[in-house]
Specification:
- The structure holds two protein chains of two kinds.
- Chain A is α/β, with parallel strands linked by helices.
- Helices cover 36% and strands 21% of the residues of chain A.
- Chain A is built from ten helices and ten strands.
- The longest helix of chain A has 20 residues.
- In chain A, 57% of the residues are buried.
- By secondary structure, chain B is mainly alpha-helical.
- The chains are: A alpha/beta, B mainly alpha.
Chain lengths: 277, 117
């Protein structure tokens, strides 16, 4: 087994881009939780970090929208957004094309996936990396699930993709950390930005921690949109991690709605030692 | 169809410095090659954030267009609200097909037929 860490976290651009407008105490608590996540990944001695994100029309558009895509380059650049807007300097992020190729080749046996030798990271990846590998010295393999442009990736396919990803990771000699980024309830970049459905989020996180497949796949997009906004569609990334965790149970390390960040800020992980056979 | 062209124009503008340069030097010429309605072309050239939101542009694309024009975040949100007040709810795109109803709409109990699957 080479999966050494599995977790999820928020990626909202306000977390770094509007940091000065947040309540300092709430911001510090979130940043501290990101630091604990960074420490956990470091202590797991990960050789690479696979980031399952929901990008936002930075690389993938409706002219050729993949349900799933995996990067296959030795380096990437980010953020694609204005660095001043995001609060993160533009930088080169190391990749590992050879590891990507092995992962993609294995994933393709059970899930259809596009690959990309070019990828300019948007906030969906850059905000987590800013906290989790601040020196940009850990090779990253980017993964995208279409959570933005309908028709969206079905939830059960996101689950199956997570299982494919786990098989691929376990077939490698490297020690690999895996994170999903996004959601949960939010109405990003709309007039409702800042609205957060805390009760819905907490109920979702309870399900995520129990990691019961049927419970997690019971969500319907129509209800998710009504209760959790279009940002709620990003639960696909969380579900992929659940599937990859192989039935392990999880723990929420941090959850707090921060309206100026436009999301209920979340850091959570699975205890891989609790995985069911 | 033209919403697609509007969003594609913005997608390219958001990610391509050469497109940004063309837009900065001549907005009419920059939009000339795109199959746009008169409203869409006018909104892209002005720029009119509220009208673009009404026309259905996804906020994840629109927010970068606003940033490109140095519009602060709070003003960007207000411009969309003003656009809804002036022109009405989004008439196309992900918000329209999922029944987006504007500020506070998530408290509504409507369950329209979405195009999300």
């Amino acid at each position: 087994m080479t999966l050494v860490y599995a977790g999820v976290c928020s990626h909202a651009p306000g977390i770094t881009g509007r940091a000065d407008q947040a309540d300092p105490e709430a911001r510090s608590a979130l940043y501290h939780s990101f630091e604990l996540m960074r420490t956990a990944i470091a202590e797991a001695r990960a050789d690479a970090l696979v980031v399952v994100a929901a990008e936002h029309f930075a690389n993938f558009f409706m002219d050729n929208m993949p349900s799933f895509a995996i990067g296959m380059a030795d380096s990437y650049e980010g953020p694609i957004e204005d660095p001043a807007w995001l609060g993160i300097e533009r930088t080169r992020v190391p990749g590992n094309a050879e590891l990507s190729r092995r992962l993609i080749t294995e994933v393709m046996n059970t899930s259809d996936v596009a690959y990309a030798e070019e990828w300019r990271f948007d906030h969906g990846i850059m905000v987590p990396l800013h906290f989790l590998t601040p020196s940009y010295d850990l090779p990253v393999v980017p993964v995208n699930v279409n959570c933005q442009g309908p028709p969206l990736t079905p939830l059960h396919r996101a689950w199956a993709f997570g299982e494919s990803l786990r098989r691929a990771i376990d077939a490698q000699p490297e020690r690999i950390a895996l994170i999903g980024t996004g959601g949960i309830s939010h109405w990003p970049a709309t007039p409702d930005s800042g609205k957060i459905n805390e009760a819905w989020d907490r109920a979702f996180l309870d399900r995520w921690c129990r990691n019961d497949r049927d419970e997690l796949l019971a969500y319907e997009d129509l209800d998710v949109y009504a209760d959790a906004g279009q940002g709620g569609f990003e639960i696909r990334t969380y579900l992929a991690i659940s599937a990859a965790a192989g039935g392990a149970t999880g723990q929420v390390h941090h959850y707090e709605p921060i309206p100026i960040f436009a999301v209920g800020c979340t850091v959570a992980s699975y205890d891989l030692t609790t995985a069911r056979p | 169809m033209t919403l697609y062209a509007t969003q594609k124009f913005l997608y390219q503008l958001n990610r391509d410095p050469a497109a940004q340069k063309r837009y900065a030097s001549d907005r009419d010429a920059a939009t000339a090659g795109f199959d746009l309605s008169d409203d869409e072309r006018r909104a892209l050239i002005a720029p009119d954030i509220g009208l673009l939101f009404h026309l259905g542009v996804n906020g994840q694309i629109l927010m970068h267009f606003a940033a490109h024009h140095q519009i602060p975040w709070a003003d960007y949100l207000q411009l969309m609200r003003d656009g809804v007040a002036t022109h009405g709810q989004p008439r196309a795109g992900v918000y329209a097909v999922t029944g987006y109803g504007g500020v506070g709409s998530a408290d509504d109990d409507r369950r329209p037929t979405p195009e999300t699957r």
